[in-house]
Write a structure and sequence with these properties.
The structure holds three protein chains of three kinds. Chain A contains 17 helices and two strands. A two-stranded antiparallel sheet of chain A has the order 1-2. In chain A, a hairpin with a 2-residue loop joins strand 1 and strand 2. Chain C folds into two domains: 171 residues, P-loop containing nucleotide triphosphate hydrolases (Rossmann fold, 3-Layer(aba) Sandwich); 80 residues, no CATH class. The chains are: A mainly alpha, B mainly alpha, C alpha/beta.
Chain lengths: 347, 297, 261
C-alpha cells in the first residue's frame, strides 16, 4: 500500500461519509440526526482525552472544565448583543461580550483557544504532578470552573445559563470539526513527536534521559487536548442551544473517559468506534428510563437505570477487557483490505 | 460578630470538620495501603445514611438499632466493593483501579436513584439531638456537641485499632510494602478487607450524622463531602490517620469561618476546597503530616 | 585539547537526609577514554550516574562536561549537552517497536516539531524519513536490523540491552554512561558485549564510563578504574593496580580474604 493509494482511499471514505450525512440530513428524523451529531461531538471529546491520557499518559479528569469554557466562549460570541441583553436580566454582560458577535466558525475556534489558554494556565502547576494526583487536581480545576460559572453572572449569566443559542452546529459543521480533530491527532501521534509522547507515557525517566523535555511535551499535549475539548464543548453547547453550569458536572468527563477506555487507551480507531457505540448505547438506554406500554400495560420507567447499566459496562471493561475494543492497534487500509481478502491485489 | 454567634460558628465548624474527618480516615487508610483514591467512598457515606432511613421507615426499627445495622451493612458493602471491583486489579496499572472506583461511584449513586429514587427524603431525627438548648446567651444545638464527641470516640477507636492491635500492625506493614508483607505471612487480602470495612463503617457513621445535621437524603449527597474529605486527607498528608483528622477539622473551619466572615463569598464555598487542594499539591504534596515519597530512578 | 578531560567531577557529594550516599567523588574521564566505576552493592555507583545525568541534584560539588558546568542541569539538558545513558534495569519504551525506540532517541536532534507534523510540512516529512533511516542504520549496527518492527519488550534480553545502547547512540552523544551493561549475561554474551562496546566506541568516537559488577568486563576493557565503597572513593588506577590493591580486595571480599591473599 503506498501513500497515494492510501490518500485516495481516505478521500473515498470522506466522500462516503459526506454522502451518508447528506442522506441522513434529508431522510432521518430530528432525533436520529441529533444522535449522529452527538457522535461527532463525542468523538472529538474522546480523541482529545485519548491524546492527553491514552498517548501521553496524563490521567486528566478536567474535560468538563475545558468543555465548559469552550461552550461559554462560543455561546457568548454567537449570541447577538441584543439577545445577550435580553438574557442577562440581573446584570448586563461584561465587555467585550456585551458588544461583539462572531461567526460560528470563529466562535468555535475561540472557544477552543479559550480552553487551551486555561489548559496552559492549569497545566503549569498541575502537570508536575503524576498519576492519580494529576487526576484529582484536574478534577478540582473542572469543579472550580463550574463554581465560577455559577457565580460570575456577568460572564455566564450564573445559574440561569444561556438559552436560545442559535443552532449552527449541523451535521456538516460537526463532522468537519470531527474530521479536522481526527486529522490533527493522527498526524501528531504518527509523527516522531507522537513517539516522544508515548515515550513519556511508557517511562518518564527513560524519556528524560533521551533528552525529551518531558514537562514541555506534556504541556503541549495537554494544551492541544484542551483545545479540542473546548471545540467539542462549543459544538455541544451549540447543538443543545442551552447551557448552564449544571451541565458540566463530573459525569460529563466520566462519559468521555468511558469512551476512551472502551475504545482502548492509545488507539484512535478504538476511540472512534467506541464514540459511535457508546453514544448510541447512551441514547438507546434512555428507553429503560421512560415508561413503556406493553400490550395495554404501562411499565413505569426506572430513573437512574441508564447510568447503572452504563457504569456496569465500564466496570466490566476495566475488569475483564482492560485493553478495550482495540488495545493499542490502529486501523490501516492495508489491514482492512487484507481482512477482506484482497490485500494482494491492492499492493 | 457577637461572641455567641462565634460560638455557634465554632460548633458548626467543629461538627462539619469532624464529619469530614471521619470520611477522610477511610480515604487515607485505603490510599496508604493500596495507593488508590477510592472514588466510591462518598457513595459509601451516602449509603450509610440511606440504610438508616430504610431501617426506620420501612422496617420500623428503633433508631439506635437502625443506626448500628446500617453501619454494619455499609461496612460489608465497602468490603464487597473491594472484593469485586478492586481486588482483581491489584496487579494492574494503578490508574485502572482508580477508573474502576469511578465506575463504582457512579454505579452506587445511580443504583441509589433506582432503589431510593432521586426525590430528596426527610430523615427521622431523635428529639434529644435537635431541641435547642440555651447555655448562657448561646443557643446550642445538642447535635453540634454530640457529633464532634462521637466522632472523637470513633477516631480514637480507629487510631487504637491501627496502632495497637495486630490487624493494625498488618495494615501498617502492608502500607510500607505489600509484597514483603505477603512474604512475611501477613494475610494481605483479609487485612485489606478489614481496612475497607473499617473505613466504610466510619464513612457510614459520618453519613448518618451528616443526615442528622443536614436532614435531607439524596443519592448525590456523597459527592461533594466525598471530594472534600479526600482533600482533607491530602491536606493532612495522605496515609496518616492523625493527618486526616486534622485536615478534616481544618477544612471544616476554613469553610465555615470564611463564609461566616465573608458572606459575599458563600457562592464560592465549594471551590475553596479545590483551590486549597491544588495549592497543597503544588507546594506541599505530602500534606501537613505525610511522608516523602521519592521517585525511584 | 587531547589530554583534557571530557567529563570531570569535583567533590561531588550526595546526601539523603542523614545518609551520605556519595562523598567527594572526583573523576576525570579523558576524551575518547573508557573508564570503569566499580564497587560492592550499595556503594553509590548508580547515585554517581544519577548526579552526572541530572536525575539527582548533588548536595555538593560540580559536574563539568566539555569545560561547561552542568551541575544540577535537568536530565534532558544533560542529554542535549551530549551525555547519554543506559539503565541497570533496562528501561525501554515497552509499547513501542524497536525502531520507534531508536527514533525517540533521535528525536532530540530533530529540527521540526509538533506543528510542522500537524501541517504535514514537506521539510518535516523529509526529516522524519531521514531519522527513520538513521534509526534503521543504528539498529543494523547493533544487529537488530530484522527486528525493527517488533515490540521492544518482546526482544530477547541481550537484544534489549543492545537496543538500549542503540537508543542512547541515537541522541548523538559524545559521552556514554553504561549502567551494568553485562548484568544477567552469560560469559559468551558478555564476551560479545565487550567487543561490541569497543567497536561502537571506535565508530562513534565516544568516551565511555561504565558501572560494572563483572570484574572481568571492567578489567578487560577499561583503561582506568574508580572504586567506590560506602560512597567513598577507595582506589583509582589502571586495572593492574586495582587488581592488586589491598583496600579493594578487602571491600569486595571482606577483611579476612584480604589478609589471606
Amino acid at each position: 500500500m503506498n501513500r497515494a493509494n492510501a490518500t485516495l482511499l481516505n478521500l473515498a471514505a470522506v466522500g462516503c461519509l459526506a454522502v451518508f450525512l447528506w442522506a441522513a440530513g434529508r431522510h432521518l428524523d430530528g432525533y436520529k440526526v441529533q444522535i449522529i451529531n452527538l457522535i461527532a461531538v463525542n468523538i472529538i471529546l474522546a480523541l482529545s482525552l485519548n491524546l492527553i491520557y491514552g498517548f501521553t499518559g496524563l490521567f486528566s479528569l478536567g474535560h468538563a472544565g475545558f468543555m465548559a469554557i469552550g461552550a461559554y466562549v462560543c455561546a457568548m460570541l454567537v449570541l447577538s448583543p441584543a439577545q445577550k441583553e435580553m438574557l442577562f436580566i440581573l446584570e448586563p454582560p461584561i465587555w467585550p461580550f456585551s458588544v461583539v458577535q462572531a461567526p460560528f466558525f470563529v466562535a468555535v475556534l475561540l472557544g477552543g483557544l479559550g480552553a487551551a489558554a486555561f489548559g496552559v494556565l492549569i497545566g503549569f502547576p498541575v502537570l508536575r504532578l503524576g498519576g492519580d494526583y494529576l487526576g484529582i487536581a484536574t478534577l478540582g480545576f473542572a469543579e472550580i470552573i463550574r463554581v465560577l460559572a455559577n457565580n460570575l453572572p456577568r460572564v455566564t449569566n450564573g445559574a440561569l445559563g444561556l438559552k436560545g443559542i442559535p443552532a449552527y452546529a449541523n451535521l456538516w459543521w460537526n463532522y468537519a470539526w470531527c474530521l479536522l480533530t481526527l486529522y490533527c491527532i493522527v498526524k501528531l501521534v504518527r509523527s516522531n513527536f507522537g513517539n516522544a509522547l508515548m515515550a513519556i507515557r511508557d517511562d518518564e525517566v527513560a524519556a528524560k534521559s533521551m533528552g525529551i523535555n518531558v514537562f514541555k511535551y506534556k504541556m503541549i499535549s495537554f494544551t492541544l487536548g484542551a483545545f479540542f475539548a473546548g471545540v467539542g464543548g462549543a459544538l455541544l453547547g451549540n447543538l443543545l442551544t442551552t447551557i448552564d453550569p449544571k451541565m458540566f458536572l463530573f459525569v460529563l468527563t466520566f462519559n468521555v473517559l468511558m469512551i476512551v477506555v472502551t475504545g482502548g487507551l492509545g488507539s484512535l480507531t478504538g476511540t472512534v468506534l467506541a464514540g459511535i457505540v457508546i453514544t448510541v448505547l447512551l441514547e438507546w438506554l434512555r428507553f429503560v428510563e421512560n415508561p413503556i406500554s406493553f400490550g395495554g400495560y404501562e411499565i413505569p420507567g426506572i430513573p437512574g437505570m441508564r447510568m447503572v447499566v452504563f457504569s456496569l459496562v465500564l466496570l466490566m471493561i476495566i475488569l475483564f477487557r482492560r485493553e478495550g475494543i482495540m488495545g493499542m492497534r490502529e486501523f490501516s487500509w492495508k489491514g482492512f483490505l487484507r481482512f477482506f481478502g484482497r490485500g494482494g491485489g491492492a499492493r | 460578630m457577637t461572641s455567641s454567634m462565634f460560638v455557634q460558628h465554632f460548633l458548626n465548624a467543629l461538627t462539619l470538620g469532624s464529619l469530614y474527618a471521619l470520611i477522610a480516615i477511610g480515604y487515607t487508610m485505603v490510599y496508604g495501603i493500596l495507593r488508590l483514591i477510592n472514588f466510591a467512598h462518598g457513595e459509601i457515606f451516602m449509603l450509610g445514611a440511606y440504610f438508616v432511613f430504610w431501617g426506620v421507615v420501612l422496617l420500623h426499627l428503633p433508631w439506635p438499632v437502625a443506626v448500628l445495622g446500617a453501619i454494619l451493612i455499609t461496612a460489608l458493602t465497602g468490603v464487597l466493593v473491594d472484593r469485586v471491583a478492586y481486588r482483581p486489579l491489584r496487579e494492574a496499572p494503578r490508574i485502572s483501579a482508580l477508573i474502576s472506583s469511578i465506575g463504582v461511584s457512579f454505579f452506587l449513586q445511580n443504583l441509589a436513584v433506582v432503589v431510593f429514587s432521586a426525590i430528596p427524603r426527610q430523615v427521622y431525627r431523635p428529639e434529644w439531638l435537635t431541641k435547642v438548648m440555651i447555655v448562657g446567651k448561646v443557643r446550642v444545638l445538642p447535635l453540634t456537641l454530640f457529633v464532634p464527641a462521637l466522632s472523637l470516640v470513633l477516631m480514637l477507636g480507629s487510631i487504637y485499632i491501627v496502632y495497637k492491635t495486630k490487624p493494625g500492625l498488618g495494615m501498617r506493614a502492608i502500607a510500607k510494602d505489600i509484597e514483603t508483607s505477603r512474604l512475611m505471612g501477613v494475610p494481605v487480602n483479609r487485612i485489606i478487607s478489614l481496612t475497607f470495612g473499617l473505613g466504610s463503617a466510619l464513612a457510614a457513621a459520618s453519613g448518618i450524622m451528616w443526615a442528622l445535621r443536614y436532614p435531607q437524603l439524596q443519592p448525590i449527597m456523597g459527592v461533594i463531602p466525598g471530594f472534600k474529605a479526600f482533600i482533607a486527607a491530602v491536606l493532612g498528608g495522605i496515609g496518616s490517620i492523625g493527618g486526616a483528622v486534622v485536615g478534616g477539622v481544618l477544612l471544616g473551619f476554613v469553610e465555615i469561618m470564611l463564609v461566616a466572615f465573608m458572606p459575599e463569598l458563600a457562592g464560592f464555598r465549594d471551590a475553596f476546597a479545590f483551590v486549597l487542594l491544588i495549592v497543597i499539591l503544588l507546594f506541599r504534596p505530602t500534606g501537613l503530616f505525610g511522608e516523602r515519597l521519592e521517585d525511584k530512578v | 585539547m587531547k589530554n583534557e578531560a571530557i567529563l570531570q567531577t569535583r567533590d561531588l557529594t550526595m546526601r539523603f537526609g542523614g545518609l551520605t550516599a556519595v562523598k567527594d567523588f572526583n573523576i576525570a574521564v579523558p576524551r575518547g577514554g573508557m573508564v570503569g566505576l566499580i564497587g560492592p552493592n550499595g556503594a553509590g555507583k548508580t547515585t554517581c550516574f544519577n548526579m552526572i545525568t541530572g536525575f539527582y541534584s548533588p548536595t555538593g560539588g560540580q559536574v563539568v562536561f566539555e569545560g561547561r558546568d552542568i551541575t544540577g542541569a535537568a536530565p534532558h539538558e544533560v542529554c542535549k549537552a551530549g551525555i547519554a545513558r543506559t539503565f541497570q534495569n533496562i528501561r525501554l519504551f515497552a509499547n513501542e517497536t524497536a525502531l520507534q525506540n531508536v527514533m525517540i532517541g533521535a528525536h532530540l536532534r530533530q529540527q521540526t516539531t509538533w506543528w510542522h507534523a500537524l501541517l504535514s510540512l514537506p521539510g518535516c516529512l523529509r526529516e522524519e524519513k531521514a531519522l527513520r533511516a538513521k534509526a534503521l542504520h543504528l539498529l543494523e549496527i547493533v544487529g537488530l536490523a530484522d527486528h525493527g518492527h517488533e515490540k521492544a519488550t518482546s526482544l530477547p534480553y541481550g537484544a534489549q540491552r543492545r537496543l538500549e545502547i542503540a537508543r542512547a547512540l541515537a541522541t548523538e552523544p559524545a559521552f556514554l554512561l553504561l549502567d551494568e551493561p553485562a548484568a544477567g549475561m552469560n560469559p559468551q554474551e558478555t564476551e560479545h558485549l565487550m567487543a561490541f562496546i569497543r567497536s561502537i566506541r571506535e565508530q562513534f568516537k565516544l568516551s565511555i564510563l561504565l558501572i560494572e559488577h563483572d570484574m572481568k568486563v571492567v578489567m578487560g576493557i577499561c583503561e582506568q578504574i574508580w572504586v567506590l565503597d560506602y560512597g567513598e572513593t577507595i582506589a583509582v588506577g589502571s586495572p593492574e593496580e586495582i587488581r592488586s590493591d589491598a583496600g579493594v580486595i578487602e571491600a569486595y571480599l571482606g577483611k579476612e580474604s584480604a589478609a589471606n591473599a
